[in-house]
Amino acid sequence: MFFNNMLTAFTQVLILAVIVLVGFVCDKTKLYTEKAARLTNDLLFYIITPCVIIDSFLSVKFDKQSGLGLLAALGCAVAFHIVAIGVSFLLFNKGDKDKNSIFKYATIYGNMGYMGLPLSKAVLDAVSPGAGEIGVFYCSTAVAAFNLFCFTHGVWLMDGGNKKSFNFKKLIINPGTLGILIGLPLFLLGVNLPKVILTPVESIASLNTPLAMIMFGTYLANTDLKSMFKQKEIYISSLVKLVILPIVMILAFRLCGVTGYLLITCAVFVSTPAANNTVMFAAKFNKDTGLASKTTALSSVLSIFTMPVCIALAMAL
Length: 317
Hints:
Strand content: under 5%
Order of helices and strands: HHHHHHHHHHHHHH
Largest sheet: none
Helix content: over 70%
Radius of gyration: 18 Å
Number of strands: 0
Distance between the termini: 11 Å
């Protein structure tokens, strides 16, 4: 059963990897380059991601079970980030402070939006047709927790502990939080949007998976993939992010009574590779963007093999 579950999860991850490969080839052939992808990033970040989150709330009927699941997903996501912050502090507390901030960030913050959301849907749909929306619903809550930590601790970390870098406005006005602020009331009130509004939201949301993966493929195409294998800290960060933290947290969640679709979704978002915005934050705060790109790239490549194992573990528990 474990290997069947792993094969199911691996198939879904591999599907995403094929789309990433399309982006890689597009960049190499100059059909759709990294420069164009960066221009598209705002579309994905500010329009498509909120639509995905809103659509997930509209696809689930509010009742006691879904409400409790929402709170449980939020609790799991918050717990994961707190544990990851503690572990990264212990691992990368000596040596170059600027480099350590990149390794810490990459170890803590995962690609929950661009990879977690589509994979949650794909895996749960494979388990039970139609269940994918529940996965997106739970993972959207994790994205909200990600934004909460990312725009507070993450900003503080990458800016060298400068308290002035914290921006409360960005904590509230960001795509993940706005999606929650719009979708949550609609979910709680059981609002049925007219088709003329609902259909465009659904159509825009459907762009998330292919566009995000194709864009990421262009980023990989411009990364020095050979040199990223030469720095041990990148391996340590990837090992902790992709194997140690996910397995420990999945087992901890199960011991706390988390099961079923929620546990599988938790397995997806805790096992995602380093967040794409590791590079963006490194650029913003004048850190080594090359190192950030290599760390993110290696984590992403290795996740093709590690995520199926973590997801299969959750499916078997």
